[in-house]
Amino acid sequence: MDAVRSTLTELVQSEGEAFYGDAARVESKLGERAGDHPDEVAVLVTAVRAGVVDELANTKPGLLEIAVGHLAGRMARMYGVDPGAAHWAVESWAQALTAELPPDSTVPVTIDGEYGREASPERKGGPAIPWPWVATIGAGLVGLLALVVLVRMVVGLVHSGGGGETKRAAAPATTTSAVTTIPPRTGDLTVPPGLNLGTGDVQVTLLWADGNDLDLHVIDPSGAEIYFSHSTSPTGGTLDHDDTAGCTSTGTHVENVFWPTGKAPPGRYRVFVENYSSCGAPSRYTVRATAKSQVATSSSGTVGAHEGDQTPVSQFSFS
User: Fold this and answer.
1) Alpha-carbon distances of 129 from 64, 133, 135, 219, 286, rounded to whole Å
2) At residue 165, does pLDDT exceed 70?
3) Predicted confidence (pLDDT) at residue 208 exceeds the cutoff of 50
4) Sheet strands (E) in 260-313
5) Cα(58)–Cα(69) distance, integer angstroms
6) Per-residue pLDDT tens for 91-139?
7) How many other C-beta atoms can be found within 10 angstroms of the C-beta atom of residue 225?
8) Rounded alpha-carbon distances, angstroms, from residue 127 to 111, 121, 122
9) In Å, how far are 53, 176, 201, 245 from 184, measured between CA atoms?
10) Where are the chain's structural domains?
């Protein structure tokens, strides 16, 4: 709610890091001044304990939209916070830290049904949908989907018993199991048509095709590390495409780091991939690096299923 956000902003501006860097102090101060909103206070404190505030404080304004998605997803998965509440908390801290909020965010603010009574700031002028209605509609859609899957399974079984002339339909249950337990093949992964990536002296591209949120990390010869919250280096390197994926997402996901022609420093470059936010299964991936349009290194592998798991570091040289 606006009153809680205003209180949070006042405390950040008056006390600075002494306030937002201490979860216990955040809980105490917000409890004193916004104690009539215990759910909001609780989720804001959880955000501090989840490391949200530290990362937001170090995030450049142009990457805020990416960071909000990353951090809200991490709160939901690791701390069991309602996704809408997590998104509201991250945005509230971002506002309090004077970061620019994503202009097109449309996630309704709902915590235990209370926030559904008031439209979030980015949706003023239109009624917010109460969380119970959202849950009811979602349950109905899930039931409808289950019915469709059941019908398709029955049709598949009927076809399979008709003399063998009709190919048996793939059972959706089998497909679902494969997605959740076996990472998809990446041998044929390519950059999706229409996606323009930066190129130049050095280019490093990561491809994967499941819902895990993987992050590409590139360390240049000076030791500067480029990844989602540090998208540029003093040497001219840029992360020009970041993909947050998501457990329900499909298709090929891409991250890309490049140095323009004439800008890449000579020396050794190091590359690794991190599982930033996991859907519970390992990911197969492909990383390809070029130097002056020639392949410098290309490899495929698997990164672990746990958040924070990393691949071995690969290296190449540019001169």
Assistant:
1) 26, 7, 10, 45, 41
2) no
3) yes
4) 267-277, 283-291, 294-303
5) 15
6) 898 888 864 444 444 444 444 444 443 433 443 444 545 555 545 565 6
7) 14
8) 16, 11, 12
9) 34, 12, 31, 14
10) 2-129, 136-169, 202-318
Of residues 73 and 107, more confidence is placed in: 73
Q: What would the two tokens of residue 228 be?
A: 């989602």
**Strands in the chain per DSSP E:** 202-208, 213-219, 225-226, 238-241, 253-259, 267-277, 283-291, 294-303, 314-318
* Calpha distance 69→140 (Å, rounded): 26
Predicted confidence (pLDDT) per residue in 140-163, tens digit: 665 666 665 565 554 454 444 444
CB 116 within 8 A of CB 132: yes
> Distance between CA 209 and CA 191 in Å, rounded?
11
CA pair distance 287, 82, nearest whole angstrom: 34
pLDDT band at 90 (very low <50, low <70, confident <90, very high): confident
Mean pLDDT over residues 232-246, rounded?
91
The confidence score (pLDDT) of residue 159 equals 46
Name the maximum alpha-carbon separation found in the chain: 78
Q: If you write DSSP's letter for every residue of 23-73 in order, what string do you get? A: HHHHHHHHHHHHTT-HHHHHHHHHHHHTTHHHHHHTS-GGGHHHHHHHHHH
